[in-house]
# Entry
Amino acid sequence: MSLSHRTPVRVLGRAAREGGGRVQPLMGCRVRAGFPSPADDHLEAEVDLHAYVVKRPAATYFVRAEGDSMVGDGIHDGDLLVVDRSLEPLPGRVIVIALEGEPTVKRLERRGGHVCLVASNPRFAPIPLAGRECEVWGVVTHVVHDLLGRSP
Amino acid sequence: MIALVDGNNFYVSCERAFDPRLAGRPVGVLSNNDGCVVARSQELKALGVAMGAPLHLLPPAVRRQAVLLSSNYALYGDMSRRVNQVLAEFSPDVELYSIDESFVGFEGFPSAGLEARCHRLRDTVRRWTGIPVGVGLAPTRVLAKVANHLAKREPAFEGVCRLEADGAVTRRVLETWPVTELWGVARRSGERLALMGIETAWQLREADPRWVRSRFSVVMERLVWELRGRPSIALDDMGAPRQRILVSRSFGRLASDVVDLREAVRQHAARAGEKLRRQGSLARAVQVFVRTNPFLAGEPQYRNAVVVPLAAPTDDSRVLLAAARRGLEALFLEGYRYQKCGVMLLDLVEAGRRQLSLLETPRDEAVRGRSQRLMATLDRLNREMGRDTVRFGLPREGNAWTLRCERRTPRYTTRWDELMRVKTG
# Structure
């Protein structure tokens, strides 16, 4: 396979973790992958992946997912989840919830007037929340999945 | 108006934020190495466990029921930082007073909406961090401290208590408030006040300020003005409570060079060490904080703090300086103009009540004896010959500090390999 036949990609720049959350300019230019223009190195094109994922640093936590019942939502065993505690747990959102003291990831859904926790694996039946001891911990905003199978 | 915001049983609340199973259970946090209780949940207090109680002296029944954890300073420091970040969303004027207490100034805010604002602040801190806080709102720091006590003591306030300088409630409260319970009144001056017929905060408020100054001190006079609702005490002048020692100063002009910050932190740590020894205490952890000037519009803003745990309770300035230096190195970022930095000594213990560590050897004992003599000599020289006659140079590098922390919970927010785990199934 020749490199030049690949789809053109949009190069955004290096991801940089910048302390204090200063806004980085988001710049880009269309280039053919494999043949970047030397001039690109001179662009002030640093983007901050951390700032992109973490909108509210004070309220954002990273947690580790265990198990495979949320694979349908893109969450694999060992994935890193970005959880924002400032967001509303609206129906349809994937949330972290302490269910009888156990921190759990599930999708929140309303089914026939009842609020349920739903796994994306059909083997798991929806869990109605009524009458259970539970407390919403936060809303999952992003999943970081390492395609090489390593942990960060 | 100024608000004092403080976390309820802060260390325990941090643990509970990441382990929901701890809710409602008696939870205690132990100091590193010496294993004394440094934080207690309400349930543990109800079991009769005293602050500072050594683990090995707790009754077996208590040890069976209670969850006793080693202190997780990385977590507490990070959660303290987060709480202050949330506070900064409600006012630019946030001053850290201790790891679990901050003052939030509301100068220029419309007075009418402040109570509602504080309720929102409290709810937001709770939601974003999981930490329950109490808020005392008043015209002065001293009254805010009283209000904060009430906010936590009386459930009817729902966590936010506002005291006006001349309100009927304020008067009723101050009339029953022992003067020794006031912020900044040491036991000894409390006894002297009592001899002169001043036993309640209200009586002190009604005393003639000039008389108070001539009989006591300028600080005591300021207390009278504060009780009357006129702000007179700056945070830096405030006597620290005996459980912690805070030394912080604003820079004369903004500092952006790490050398300037190192020098300031070194001085603060040395000064804090002197204070620590003067009151006969040992510290178990050192908190360092830095911030830019939040009132300079258009200037990049940064505030941060970190807690460095100590291997064993100590009053050795060399150890304190080295810890403070390490904290600063972890915090400092290029490209900001810093207005203020500070050093706080945390979780103090009376030197006489120090628990022997199991790891201690006769050699440690000898080392400590030498350190005590060195520090005593140092303090005497600086007292008699003038401050900074003898100063510390660079701290020792490469301290291989090993902490005993068998019962420590994961450092949920600062280590990749210790993140909170959530089950999908």
The longest helix of chain B spans residues 362-385. Confidence is low (pLDDT under 50) at residues 394-403 of chain B.
